[in-house]
Amino acid sequence: MKIQLRFFASVREALGVSEETVIVPDTVGTVGDVRQWLVQRGDVWAETLASNTALRMAYDHVMCEPETAIADGGEVAFFPPVTGG
């Protein structure tokens, strides 16, 4: 399944990327799964997206929980709990 990833504010700065299109494995079916799959990249990805790090997530422009299902062509966004304008 192909999805769009978007990273905002300090998450974008830490990762050095604002967006990316990826093909996730069949085992990735929720927003939380996407996060854990990205953590497996290691280094700064593991540190920035770790499960003990406070992050907000959105799926297709709507705030969501880790259990939110994803679909082909969807967009998953990660950003810190507080962002400035």
Under the CATH scheme, the architecture is: Roll
Instruction: Provide the structure class.
Output: alpha+beta
Helix content: 25-40%
Report the CATH superfamily. Beta-grasp domain
Specify the biggest β-sheet.
Answer: 5 strands, mixed
Mean pLDDT: 95
Helices and strands, in order, run as EHEHHEEE
Q: Which blocks of ≥5 consecutive residues have pLDDT under 50?
A: none
Count the beta strands.
5
Indicate the CATH topology.
Ubiquitin-like (UB roll)
Order of strands side by side in the largest beta sheet?
Answer: 2-1-5-3-4
Instruction: Output the number of helix runs.
Output: 3
Radius of gyration: 12 Å
Give the termini separation: 33 Å
Bulk shape: globular
Strand content: 25-35%
Overview of the structural elements:
This protein has a five-stranded mixed beta sheet with strand order 2-1-5-3-4. It has 85 residues and is α+β, with helices and mostly antiparallel strands. It has helices at 9-15, 31-39, 43-49; strands at residues 2-7, 19-23, 56-59, 62-63, 75-79. Helices cover 27% and strands 26% of the residues. The protein is globular, with a radius of gyration of 12 Å. It has a single domain, classed as Ubiquitin-like (UB roll), CATH 3.10.20.
